[in-house]
Write a structure and sequence with these properties.
alpha+beta, three-stranded antiparallel beta sheet, two-stranded antiparallel sheet, 11 strands, disordered C terminus
């Protein structure tokens, strides 16, 4: 049975992290004892190769030492064999669909590496990016752009639009925030904008266009135009399906939502009381007998039916429809 590795001994190479220039690996320049730390009783320090400032060990590396020390798992040969047997049959088809994009992280064989090369602070989204700049500069492609590329590629290839819900929710929130800013700007500036008109006089000099009214007062001719953001706001609302009908706020849509499937709207037919409905039903039944008798008379006098009866030996016979009262 193999023994667990002791992680309390000093390290020969440590990962350090500079606040301004990111992480780097180097041999410790200074090692301090830390007996209070039961997992790894040493503290490491080194100078940043860029700014020559002393840096401490990366916090994630110390966390790994603690995780390794407390890790549980098979240590006997039988346990290791049982663990290896659990991997038989894996990865499954579903697991392969999830893991086949893992190789794109390093960008060695990915087209996205040429689409979005790593340029720290070179893209517009770098202003709000939380990726370490030094780490980003060591990558062949932009980390955030690659994540977006991989997510969209996987969603379209697997036909699973739900994978993009979170990203599109953030985008929709940003669009709505921009729309609110447009509306507030229009309200502050006014829906119409006025500016003075200019013209060239007889000497070819550009001057203001003015006129004198009947009282002898001089006025400047002003050009009135709609606020230019109104058109942008209208296009944004239409293309983003944010009209009243799309949001279900019109009377027609509200009335349709209140009805059951197959039910007519209240404005389609007039509403009748119970007494009026019964009266109309009784009148229709009283006139039914007269309508049937009149129909029989028209049938008996129809020349086509009479000729048909003669040809088939039914001269003078007419099939009557008898109406019986229930």
């Amino acid at each position: 049975m193999s023994l667990k590795k002791d992680h309390r001994s000093q390290l020969k190479e440590v990962t350090f992290r500079c606040v301004r220039h990111g992480g780097f690996k180097a041999e410790p320049a200074r090692v301090d004892a830390d007996p209070d730390d039961a997992v790894h009783p040493w503290r490491y320090f080194s100078l940043c190769p860029v700014c020559d400032e002393e840096c401490g060990q990366a916090h994630w590396e110390r966390s790994l030492l603690k995780a390794w020390q407390k890790a549980t798992g098979p240590i006997s040969e039988e346990g290791k064999a049982a663990s290896a047997e659990n991997l038989v049959g894996h990865p499954t088809k579903e697991e392969s669909l999830r893991t086949r994009f893992n190789a794109m992280k390093h960008g060695a064989s990915a087209k996205v590496a040429t689409y979005f090369p790593a340029k720290p602070d070179g893209y517009a989204l770098c202003a709000t990016c939380d990726v370490d700049r030094y780490f980003c500069s060591q990558q062949p492609c932009c980390v955030k752009q690659t994540q977006n590329f991989m997510l969209h590629h996987a969603a379209f290839e697997q036909r699973k639009p739900g994978m993009l819900t979170g990203m599109y929710a953030d985008m929709q929130a940003a669009v709505f925030s921009i729309l609110q800013q447009i509306i507030m700007t229009i309200i502050a500036d006014g829906v119409k904008l006025t500016r003075p008109e200019f013209h060239f006089d007889e000497n070819g000099k550009l001057s203001l266009a003015t006129y004198v009214d009947e009282h002898g007062e001089k006025h400047t001719i002003m050009e009135v135009s709609a606020h230019p953001l109104l058109k942008s706001m209208s296009e944004l609302l239409t293309k983003n399906n944010m009209s009243l009908a799309d949001m279900g706020m019109t009377n027609k849509v509200i009335e349709a939502d209140d009805m059951l499937p197959g039910q007519l709207g209240s404005k389609t037919i007039p509403v009748l009381s119970d007494d009026e409905y019964k009266r109309r039903q009784l009148t229709a039944l009283e006139n039914l007998t007269a309508k049937v008798m009149r129909s029989n008379q028209l049938t008996a006098a129809d020349p086509i039916l009479v000729e048909f009866g003669r040809e088939n030996g039914h001269v003078g016979q007419v099939i009557d429809v008898e109406v019986r009262e229930q």
